[in-house]
Design a protein that fits this description.
The complex is a heterodimer. By secondary structure, chain A is mostly helical. Chain A is built from 22 helices and 8 strands. The two termini of chain A are 39 Å apart. The chains are: A mainly alpha, B mainly alpha.
Chain lengths: 540, 105
Amino acid sequence: MADELIKPDELLSQIDHRPSGAGWMDTPVDIRKGMYCYASNPKSVETLGLPNARPWNPLEDDWKLPENWQQIVHDGFRERLDKFRSFKVFMDICVRCGACADKCHFFIGTGDPKNMPVLRAELLRSVYRNDFTTAGKILGRLGGARPMTLDVLKEWWYYLFQCTECRRCSVFCPYGIDTAEITIMGREILNLLGLNIDWIATPVANCYRTGNHLGIQPHAFKDMLDFFVDDIEEVTGVRVQPAYMEKGADILFITPSGDVFADPGTYTCMGYMLLFHYLKEKYGLKITWSTYASEGGNFGFFTSHETMKRLNSKMYAEARRLGVKWILGGECGHMWRVISQYMDTMNGPADFLEEPVNPITGTKFENAKSTKMVHIAEFTADLIKHGKLDLDPSRNDNKIITFHDSCNPSRGMGMLDEPRYVIQNVANHFYEMPANTIREQTFCCGSGAGLNAGENMELRMAGGFPRANAVKYVHETFGVNMLACVCAIDRAALPASMGYWVPEVEVTGLHELVANALIMPGEKERETDLRGEPLPGMEE
Amino acid sequence: MPTVEFGGKSFTVDEDGFIDDYTNWSQEWVQYVKKEEGIDELNDEHQKVVAVLREYYEKNGIAPMVRVLSKVTGFKLKHIYELFPSGPGKGACKMAGLPKPTGCV
């Protein structure tokens, strides 16, 4: 819990990257408070119809597993090796060169050898060798094999939930092993035994039942957007009118529910609403929200392929029902890995939708040809490029901005330049963090893949250290005071890690900055930004 | 799940000490959280925050966003922290008997 969190300098001084003398197989797992998340609530597991719903506590010896749990793990492992060729290849080809070892934010921030991606994967590979390879069966431990025991299972659980599936390590792997995929498979096998964390299980259950991770019901969702309508009017003098489930609208917009609920994402949400109103007034473009498909994120992705598929299908079902041309996606992180790398073969092809074309500029979004889903940063960058937005970047002049590439939009879909292009057109002061901490090499916020809970705050702050350290550098060098990002987990996680490591820096979404600069038709003279803070030159 | 005893009543709570079920809330629970939070005296402002939270939750099945709580009560976030040292979530929502929100928050 935050109130028991150790101080930043203590956390730094306890990091030791020298391995202990003992071999890793002889170092038993020590499940430590502050580093793990609470066990899944049985009600949520039950809602999803997933196995072994029961109360359990990671700190207790008895995890209340089914009697034949070893058989379940073995069979689950084999099923996935047969089904996913990539997983089989990743189990076989690692030469343990160690190129990934020091690339992980959790290893950098904790010094725990089992947070080296190679060793995290080795937790699974050792069991793979024992159960599925001839060499492993004959040579046993000499060949790096070990049987699955209760201690091994606990070690899997502890360390697979200390990985944010960010894939920075994969960038450096000479074989291109996608280490996130190993975590994904491991978590999926753990879920066969009911070993999820609650910060994932409950959002997934909420989303399955209500339409979004937070469990916001339709009338409450509308209520929240209406609240923003009032606030927007106070700031701009313009009363926007968001459309809900409008049949025949041009575009369906889907964003993470965090944006309608949690600060500072709520200001990003107001940014979307202003942009959509602008496009409707100026160009007649009709964009609709949905209270059914009211979640861009997909914590099912952190549970199993099957739950990911279930949650993802709602977006496309709603797009089909409303008869829109294509889907516009908000500032979410992992949603884009799900869309770009899984959707097409999972719930696709979405051939009932049109290949996305920006109706205002005529630009064809070739990259979204098969998924039919366009990232709002690409969309806005395209509008700016064609001179379709009236902008006054000086309204953001008191913000000295840097940009945090969210792991999945950068490494999972290759979106690197569009957010930067947008920032540089809506603001005048932009500085990059060091090259080895941005773009494809971006450091994770430290809380992704469902780890942004409260009880594992020490882990989050340790994992968030490399990113925060790069922010600290641009803060001290260029006076950066605003960290921009395009992910709702970032907007939830980075304020905590900034508060801990670089308290002078605040966090914003991209479209908050856009809307501050956007000159609305019929607006009053603006005195404040969306947060109600005075604009430059308007201070008392 | 652990239980706590207070004022002659027993409450089942989660790992962070939130009450397991909104309907089990009572004035004894309020007094229990008051003690846990280290609040000296419950005044009208505390009561107002709790009432607003419960009313919103009953209507919407979820806690209000912080900005709504602030607007409806008329208290700035800083003042809510003065009233509830653990903040609107871990302090006020807990006292009002609401569950913790989870997700991208």
